[in-house]
Write a structure and sequence with these properties.
Elements (H helix, E strand, L loop, with lengths): L12 E5 L6 E2 L2 E2 L3 H15 L3 E5 L15 H11 L3 E3 L6 H8 L6 E3 L14 H8 L4 E4 L10 H5 L6 E3 L1 H15 L5 E5 L4 H14 L2 E4 L4 H7 L14 H13 L3 E3 L3 E5 L8 E5 L8 E5 L1 H12 L3 E5 L12 H12 L3 E4 L2 H9 L8 E2 L3 H9 L4 H4 L3
Parallel strand pairs: 1-4, 1-7, 4-6, 5-6, 7-8, 9-10, 9-15, 10-11, 15-16, 16-17
Antiparallel strand pairs: 2-3, 12-13, 12-14
Length: 388
């Protein structure tokens, strides 16, 4: 994979694919984490004499909805960079091309939401050609979109000299390092709702990790596979057989697959639900498991504290509901305090770290939940492959 070290950018126009798919509230950026993550690449390119043309998606527009314009993103980026950021009148076209070709070194042009163009997600050659015509070079720094073969992530990379930005480079290097040369013991903490979403990652870690700690609603297909009662808990029927197979693989291999031994129950999903602590894992009818119990949280925290490398993806329970946040909070605090290398795979895990004020206390916080999982599964990411 080529990096910025392989490009001479002085006096050149550089099209940079960034991931500015950020939450908006009342017409302003509500969380600028992803914008800040791109700053090292953007600052380096400007310092090296490049003029920047930035391309990003925002949400999933159907008809160029004005509320999905990148205008507030450009305003926030300008504040962070300390430079005026011009919003282009569109994504491609004569007016956009003219604005791009008039840029001077250090100036920044932000294209409108690339998903305003239907050819983006279809990776249409016409759109890729139009994007390529704006610049001399292409840099992809949008790891969160690198698993998509879109015009702005894969198509345009085939048409211009290209490289990975610093964020994408670090993401790929860090995640590959977990599989190829991790400090031992390697502990994977896997939570969330669906076993089927993460079974490929679990299978991969069964081959390379020392322990896998399971939490969240995905523990219930494992319990059901073992013959336990799950009550009204969210239990993905399609996940039971993959869970059973994973348990069998773990029993035959060298990786321990750990499940909760106690739970926190609610009579329904809600912050005002009746709460009950359960010693054991057989959930009575009329109740649902909404968090791992204190005993499990403490056991998982000890595993994390003794690990050389920790990978965490997925909450331990309904952490967005305060009565059921303790398990996820305990894991988040353990990961933040762990002496080894700690990598958090984006998504809800990143949101939990933000909620508990711990996001800056891990070795690496991935900006791409889906992309990080696919990379760890061993899948090829089109946006990364195109940078070879």
């Amino acid at each position: 994979m080529r990096t910025l070290d392989d490009l001479d950018v002085d006096g050149r126009r550089v099209l940079v694919r960034v991931d500015f798919n950020v939450p908006l509230k009342d017409g302003a950026v509500a969380d600028d984490t992803r914008i800040r993550a791109a700053l090292p690449t953007l600052s380096e390119l400007r310092e090296r004499g490049a003029a920047l043309i930035l391309v990003s998606h925002l949400g999933r527009p159907k008809d160029r909805e004005p509320e999905l314009s990148l205008r507030p993103v450009g305003e926030r980026l300008g504040e962070l960079l300390g430079v005026d950021v011009t919003l282009a009148p569109g994504v491609v076209g004569d007016a956009v091309t003219q604005a791009a070709h008039q840029l001077s070194p250090g100036e920044v042009l932000l294209l409108e939401n690339v998903r305003y163009e239907p050819g983006e997600t279809k990776n249409e050659p016409v759109l890729a050609d139009g994007l390529a015509a704006l610049a001399d070079l292409y840099v992809n720094d949008a790891f969160g979109a690198a698993h998509r073969a879109h015009a702005s992530t894969e198509g345009v990379a085939r048409r211009l000299p290209h490289a990975a930005g610093r964020l994408l480079e670090r993401e790929v290097t860090t995640l590959n390092g977990i599989l190829e040369d991790p400090a031992k013991p390697l502990v994977a903490v896997v939570g969330g709702a669906k076993v089927t979403d993460k079974i490929a990652v679990i299978d991969r870690f069964l081959e390379v990790a020392d322990a896998i700690l399971i939490g969240g609603a995905m523990c219930f297909p494992f319990f059901k596979a073992q013959g336990h009662e799950v009550g009204d808990s969210l239990c993905e029927a399609e996940g039971v057989e993959p869970a059973r197979e994973a348990l069998e693989k773990a029993a035959k291999g060298g990786c321990r697959l750990e499940l909760p031994t106690d739970l926190v129950l609610g009579d329904r999903f809600g912050a005002d639900a009746q709460r009950r602590e359960l010693s054991g894992v057989d959930v009575p009818a009329g109740w649902m498991g909404l968090d791992v119990g204190a005993e499990t949280a403490a056991r998982y925290a000890r595993e994390i504290a003794s690990a050389g490398t920790v990978f965490w993806n997925g909450p331990m329970g309904a952490f967005e509901l305060e009565p059921f946040a303790a398990g996820t909070r305990a894991v988040a605090e353990a990961v933040a305090q762990a002496p080894g290398t700690t990598v958090v795979g984006g998504g809800d895990s990143a949101a939990a770290l933000q909620q508990f004020g711990l996001a800056d206390q891990v070795t690496h916080l991935s900006t791409g939940g889906g992309a990080s999982l696919e990379l760890l599964e061993g899948k090829r990411l089109p946006g990364v492959e195109a940078l070879a």
